[in-house]
Amino acid sequence: MVNLGADLWLQFILALDATLRVATPLILCAMAGIFSERAGIIDISLEGKMLLSAFTAAATASLMHSPVLGLLAGITVSVIFSIIHGFACITHRGNQVISGLAINILASGLTVTVGIAIFRQGGQTPNLARADRFAPTELPFVDLVSHIPFIGTIYRELISGHNILVWVGFLAVIFTSYILWKTRFGLRLRAVGEKPEAVDSAGISVSLLRYKAVIIAGVLCGIAGAYLSTAHGSGFVREMTAGKGYIALAAMIFGKWQPRGALLACLLFGFLEAIAARLQGVELPLIGAAPVELILAMPYLMTVILLAGLVGRAVPPRAIGQPYIKER
Amino acid sequence: MNVQKPLPRWVDIGLIPVINVLVALFVSGIVVALIGENPFVAMMVMVKGAFVYDGSLGYTLYYATNFIFTGLAVAVAFHAMLFNIGGEGQAYLGGLGAGLICLWMDSFLPALLLIPLAIMASAAFGALWGVIPGYLQAKRGSHIVITTIMFNFLAASIMVSLLAGMLKSGGQMSPETRAFTDAASLPMIHEILQGLGFDVARSPLNLSFVIALLACVGVWVLIWRSRLGYAIRAVGQSPQAAQYAGISIERIIIITMAISGGLAGLMAINEILGVQHRVILNFTSGYGFTGIAVALMGRNHPFGIILASLLFGALYQGGAELDFEFSTITREMVLMIQGLIILFSGALSFMFQKPLQRLFSKLATDDKTEAAHG
Amino acid sequence: MTQSKKTPSGEQPSPLAVELADISKAFGTVRANEKVNLAVQHGHIHGIIGENGAGKSTLVSILYGFYRADSGRISINGRPVDIGSSADAIANGIGMVHQHFMLVPNFTVLENIMLGHEGHAQLDKAATHARAELQTLSDTYGLTVDPDSLVEDLPVGLQQRVEILKALFRGARILILDEPTGVLTPQETDQLFDILNALRDQGVTILFITHKLREIMAITDTVSVMRQGQMVAHLETASASPAKLAELMVGRKVLLDVNHTTATPGDILLTADHLYCAGDSGEVQLKDVSFDLRSGEIVGIAGVSGNGQSELLDILAGIRPPQAGNFTFADRKIDATHPLGPAALRDLGIAHVPEDRHRRGIVLNFSAAESMLLGHSDNKGDDNFSNNWWGDSWWLDPKKLAAHCATRMQAFDVRPPDPDYVSANFSGGNQQKLVLAREISTEPTLLLVGQPTRGVDIGAIEFIHQQLIELRNRGCCILLVSVELEEIMSLSDRILVMNDGGIVGEVARADADEQTLGMMMAGIAPNKDANTKTGQAS
Predict the structure, then answer these.
(1) Which residue in the set A188, A190, A197 is minimally distant from C116, CB to CB?
(2) What's C246's domain CATH number?
(3) Residue A182: its chain C contacts at CB < 8 A?
(4) Fewest CB atoms less than 10 Å from the CB: which of A29, B20, C444, C480?
(5) pLDDT digits (tens, 9 = 90+) for B120-143
(6) What ipTM was predicted for this assembly?
(7) Span C339-396, pLDDT tens digits
(8) Within a domain: B163
(9) For C226-377, where are the alpha helices, taking DSSP H only?
(10) Are both C275 and C389 inside the same structural domain?
């Protein structure tokens, strides 16, 4: 009995451990979404930017044998496409949903096309050697502490052993909170998403502010993509984002455009994905085969339920989605 | 009101979409060149693959059929200013509807009864999958873009569960239903034409193409000649005016999404009844999203949609040929072109409008001064 | 109330605070400003008056950097400046209080005032500094506001005060106010004028844009008159008269009274009984409104906008049901449990010319013929629109629609009389005539009209007023809601004044004058018996 308890406990900790790893790209993209949408620009293209960055990071890491260069390259590409999105939406006042969708489709096509051209492996990049990836970093004193019951396990499995980008993900939450609520840039950014006229008549450029917001979003998506292919995984595989960008979008809405709320939502969705993976093929008492599909569908279902107003309201920034045009 | 003379219709519907495509192809050509292939050669391969080789026109039209249905779906919703991104999910569930009818009744019903029932079921299931987000938008204010995206994923989950579980055909490992009987087959166009004496190569083009064309006529009549269509356009152009007129905005949103979902659902009959004769995983494979591109290019008008569908059909079929002939290029190239087309015709559409407007106003004033002097 | 400051004669003129020379600006083919000159002295309150569309807003928008003039020069304090953006304007000490406030509703007062001029990258430090600065400003000018309240919780008058403080916080010595009194009660307007006088005494130069003559007379030292994009006059207010200003605004002697024949009201058509409705956040919009309407009369509803008139129109038109109370029309009682929509009420004989012409009266992107169909698209039995070949249940015949529209356009002098012309391209006056054509040609029993001549040129105004009188003479009852007191007084047979969601009182045509009505608009009922049912006024 005690062993069963200890075993369950270990499984639980391992699940939490997996949660953190799975949630990291979600967290980064959700923060990206918050920057963009708080400034009034809808961003459906979190998925596409992440995919482009994942490919670029893996390709660069493979060719240059450096995950850091890969990270920088991934961020650069993601920012380029953010600027394209900005160009379409801000400068040309185009439809933001369509622009985001276009980038996603473009990303799917471009990554494979360029991938085949360079690597001739059907769209994927070659498997990255250990040195070319972000390695898990063991925190100090792991051996000393791991004997202590409970805390030791937590320290060894849950806290230590993640690679640095996981911590960057958490830092991103703090960064986002700080910037948006503690700096004047954040005040202006939030104002421009609620009432751009107020910012314009204060003599601040609405366009420039929005461009900065989407560029920051691009950086965060870039880190997320690089994480996927060079830290979490060992190379790029086609469509490897597999809807994570949309889940991040859902998490952002679930978190009501607040960093802390979005973080919790990402952890929840990550947890669901983690247990779904562990329950694959497992027989549960009473239910039979574990409903893996249902668990994986939970984030989408929960978001719809939230949007239906059944569990509180999700109110987006007031001026979102509307191109800013000076009225005559 | 800052009102500029609007562009002549032929420019809006004809010239601008052409410019969009040309720019998209140009950019794609650059990528092809960067990969190390000759873009013009690639272009020729695509054109031949789409129209010239035996059976290729049939294939092109078969693909176009899918896009007509999903394009009409997006267009109808757009007229009410609703963004239906859920075409994939609605088409997927449409396939479920048709599949269920066939699995249930294909052993005892003749084709003449079975096919219409299956068609109605696919429209009904698609309509259902569209109506729920529509209802949520109308009654609860849930943004239809997000809900339809979520519903795409939910549809995928449902179908995976069913096809790998309950509906799976006993013998096989792959998640799909059993094959339908012959009664559940739409006649193939090449067979019809051969029966009439024309020597036409095989292709998956089937009767659903005709149904798609009929749907185009139906949508045109609905939107521009019916009272319901007037109400839909009023809600889309000015919800406050619609409210003033006594048109129930909620009712219109729900009806529009039902029609839109139903049209998307019909896409399934081309695949399920026309080609596959069973329900397989992911038969929608992105056609729902292409429908968005088609509707944008076609300016939400059935005639434009037919043309845009032809274009995309040609891209898909030509893309398959590219894949076949070049080791360095795959069908993903088509995705890239598609993304660029959506980008230019949807998001950057104003980029060309302003210079063209200036050009045309200048031409108009030049005409006037000529008339004055002449 | 009239206070003009005389410039002592013989003194060396100090540099002008603001000087605009030869300013021209066109939007497409519309010449919004044509060679406009303006000269404003320091420490003066200078009015700019003109009709809707005269170009006043465009002019000050150029001064504030929203637009760049196509040609012309701007000088501030004697120095030529280049104002390419609002930032430039602010740097030159120009501040602006817009007609539609530029405030972020869910930010606090302090955050709104700080926005853009925080003074420090870190918000905490910026807020401390701003708070102190705000306190100084409040003390100097007597403008008190709670810095931590949310702007959306403040009443309109206080929000405007925040706008003024915002401008002063940014160092404005030249303050532009664009139509500031449209949203204020007469009381709040007086408070605003006190503030403006206090500012002027502290040396702030004020530009006051309005289309209301009495405000010019009340507060300004000097006034400029704009008409159709041009500056036509520049006067000392003390030497001007309302009649003179009106004539300058319009270009000819203004008919202040349309050819008004006496009304002979008939039977009671509509009885409103204790109508009540409240908004989404629970704020009461209509409380206990009761009145009668008779055939063959024009009943005017006077009041500052936002006192329940819009909601009253919406309820009587069927766009929303009353939450309590009811009204009876054509033997039908309409209340919360038996609501009737606009289509049903149209069938019963109520027509509605909405206040918001652009968003409700027409569909901008529709052709005139399609806009003509608005509200009638469901008339199944209507022979005008249907093609009998397909049956008239759901089919619309464009030829019949066009013919129907063309006839109406001719009758109502809509220019150009082209049914295919896009609704957005008609001028304001022609759009309004289009809407009237649609509503009046159904020969309604009751016509609800909101702000019929807002943004309409003078020729169309006369036509529209004439049409309303003739309609009334044919036995229709007209309920006229307007914020323009002159219009109400010139058209109405009797006037109901609304304030704060209720009817303050009723005034017969003969007894109506601006002072009485103005007091009632502020909520002060007259001493005599304020009974609102017809036929019982003492």
Answers:
(1) A188
(2) 3.40.50.300
(3) 122-124
(4) C444
(5) 999 999 999 999 999 999 998 888
(6) 0.86
(7) 999 988 988 999 999 998 888 999 999 999 999 989 887 765 444 444 333 345 677 8
(8) yes
(9) 242-250, 309-317, 342-348, 368-372
(10) yes
pLDDT tens readout for residues A233-267: 888 998 899 889 999 999 999 899 999 999 999 99
Interstrand relation of C477-481 and C446-450 (parallel, antiparallel or unpaired): parallel
| Diameter over CA atoms, chain A | 76
B18 is a domain residue: no
| Chain C residues bordering chain A (beta-carbon distance below 8 Å) | 27, 58, 64-67, 85-91, 96, 98, 100, 102-107, 111-112, 114-118, 120-124, 126, 170
Write out the residue range of the structural domain in which residue B295 sits: 72-302
Chain C CB contacts of B365 under 8 Å are none
| Residues C121 and A183: beta-carbon distance below 8 Å | yes
In a domain, C164, yes or no: no
Size of interface B-C (CB pairs under 8 A): 81
CB contact under 8 A, B142 and A243: no
pLDDT at C388: 39
Both C314 and C442 in one domain: the answer is yes
Answer whether C395 sits within 8 Å of B248, measured CB to CB.
Answer: no
Contact A317, A38 (CB under 8 A): yes
Put simply, whether B222 touches C (Cβ < 8 Å) is no
Residue B325 domain flag: no
Residues C63-86: tens digit of each pLDDT: 998 888 899 999 998 899 999 888
- Residue in this structure with the two tokens 């800052």, named with its chain if needed: B2
> What average pLDDT does the segment C107-135 reach?
92
Phi, psi of A9 (to 5 degrees): -60, -45
Q: What is the pLDDT of residue B1?
A: 33
Q: Which domains are assigned to chain A?
A: 2-307 (1.10.3470)
Residue C448 placed within a domain:
yes
Long-range CB pairs of C226-229 (<8 Å, 24+ gap) are C226/C36, C226/C48, C226/C49, C226/C50, C226/C54, C226/C55, C226/C56, C226/C59, C227/C50, C227/C51, C227/C54, C227/C251, C228/C53, C228/C54, C228/C55, C229/C31, C229/C32, C229/C33, C229/C34, C229/C36, C229/C54, C229/C55
Do C335 and C238 lie in a common domain? no
pLDDT for position B211:
95
C292 falls within a domain: yes
Assess whether pLDDT exceeds 60 at residue C6: no
Please name which of B287, B262, B321, B278 lies closest in space to residue B129, comparing C-alpha atoms: B262
Same domain, C391 and C453: yes
The domain containing residue C69 runs over which residues?
15-93+208-251
Of A182, A187, A204, which to mutate for an interface test with C (greatest number of C Cβ within 10 Å)?
A: A187
**Contact indicator for C35, C232 with CB cutoff of 8 Å:** no
**Average pLDDT of the segment spanning C29-56:** 85
Residue A161 pLDDT > 80: no
C499-535 pLDDT, tens digit per residue, is 888 998 999 988 887 777 777 776 677 764 444 443 3
- Best of C101, C123, C280 to substitute, by most chain A Cβ atoms within 10 angstroms, is C123
User: Could you tell me if C244 and C376 lie in one domain?
Assistant: no
**Number of domains present in the structure of chain C:** 2
Segment B5-53, tens digit of pLDDT: 556 667 766 777 788 888 888 888 888 888 888 888 888 888 888 888 8
Nearest Cβ partner for C27 among B2, B241, B246: B2
- For residue B46, being part of any structural domain is answered with no
Q: Which two tokens stand for residue A246?
A: 């949309």
Chain A to chain C, count of Cβ pairs less than 8 Å apart? 80
- C477 and C416 in one domain? yes
pLDDT at B43: 85
Domain shared by C247 and C280, yes or no? no
Q: How many domains in chain B? A: 1
List the beta bridge partners of residue C277.
C286
Contact B230 C396 (CB under 8 A): yes
Co-location of C233 and C275 in the same domain: no
- The answer as to whether C137 is a domain residue is no
> What distance in Å separates the CA atoms of residue A276 and residue A257, rounded to the nearest whole number?
26
